Automatic annotation (TrEMBL):
GO terms for cellular component: cytosol. It comes from Linum tenue. Heterooctamer of 4 alpha and 4 beta chains. GO terms for molecular function: ATP citrate synthase activity. This is ATP citrate synthase. It is found in: Cytoplasm, Cytosol. Its main location: cytoplasm. It comes from the Eukaryota. GO terms for biological process: acetyl-CoA biosynthetic process; fatty acid biosynthetic process.
Length: 264
């Protein structure tokens, strides 16, 4: 179990006696001896099990590709403004993190929920997208401010390429690609974004790895573990933006009037 097969009392005793700490029952020394990486640590601490190498590598690729997307996106902007207001690292970081949500970086769980539901119910991409439109809900994982059908997101391509080569099945991803093919017939900005790529591919990881039961997959999707990947990844970039502002001794930020001035 989570206590490494011991009851709480014997675990507390073991810690008191200086026994080495464990992640989900795996001792630190073993983690280092086996050459585990961050993907393995996430597997142990979030999913409470060791996952095959291609899964942990995929988790690491998600973290690396989502670490930063420049200073102009919502999260980095907030972090930069906060750092330039003289606030500390933690304040600057959380100011940026607080923008992560349904429009920015936090659409992974909903993308997984909606793609899973639509695929499992056998909806065609047309039926799925049109039913979302009727409900007035934007398809999570679809759409981007900058990326277009003729200027795809390289991160999405890289994630898909890795999965096509290494995953036993990419059925959810292929479904999301079909959804994208349909949405692109409606508007050129309705491309699959990183949230959609990670959401659909994580469904393939959960279902295809043989490491999770069906109820466990349902629970992970329902609780919403996957936005955690973006939160964790983007923290790396936001911390970097904070240091950049401090190192460059940037003054208090004031937004240009003409950008926000509005009339009734
Ligand atoms: N599903 C259906 N229609 C959409 C979607 C979508 N996901 N996204 C945009 N549209 C439609 C809009 O309804 C709009 O049409 P309308 O004016 O007739 O209503 C048109 O496309 C243009 O929409 P904008 O609001 O101009 O698009 P914008 O560039 O502001 O939005 C955004 C980008 C926020 C990502 C949007 O596409 C969206 O909400 N997507 C779903 C949430 C999502 O996946 N977010 C993660 C983005 S990736 C990341 O942050 C790392
Ligand atoms: C990001 O990774 O921050 C985004 O895809 C959002 C954006 O506007 O680039």
């Amino acid at each position: 179990g989570e206590l490494g097969g011991r009851d709480e009392y014997s675990l507390v005793e073991a810690i008191k006696q200086g026994e080495e700490p464990c992640y989900a029952g795996v001792p630190m020394s073993s983690i280092l001896e086996q050459g585990f990486g961050v993907g393995d640590i996430i597997s142990l601490l979030w999913f409470k099990r060791s996952l095959p190498r291609y899964c942990t590598k995929f988790i690491e690729i998600c973290i690396m590709l989502c670490a930063d997307h420049g200073p102009c996106v919502s999260g980095a902007h907030n972090t930069i403004v906060t750092a330039r207001a003289g606030k500390d690292l933690v304040s600057s970081l959380v100011s940026g993190l607080l923008t992560i949500g349904p429009r920015f970086g936090g659409a992974i769980d909903d993308a997984a929920r909606y793609f899973k539901d639509a695929y499992d119910r056998g909806l065609t991409p047309y039926e799925f997208v049109e039913s979302m439109k009727k409900k007035g809900i934007r398809v999570p994982g679809i759409g981007h401010r900058i990326k277009r059908g003729d200027n795809r997101d390289k991160r999405v391509e890289l994630l898909q390429e890795f999965a096509r080569t290494n995953f036993p099945s990419v059925k959810y991803m292929e479904y999301a690609v079909q959804v994208e093919t349909y949405t692109l017939t409606k508007a050129n900005n309705l491309v699959m974004n990183v949230d959609g790529a990670i959401g659909s591919l994580f469904l393939d990881l959960l279902a295809g790895s043989g490491m999770f039961t069906k109820p466990e997959i349902d629970e992970i999707v329902e609780i919403g573990y996957l936005n955690g990947l973006f939160v964790l990844a983007r923290s790396i970039g936001l911390i970097g933006h904070t240091f950049d502002q401090k190192r460059l001794k940037q003054p208090l930020y004031r937004h240009p009037w003409e950008d926000v001035l509005y009339t009734k």
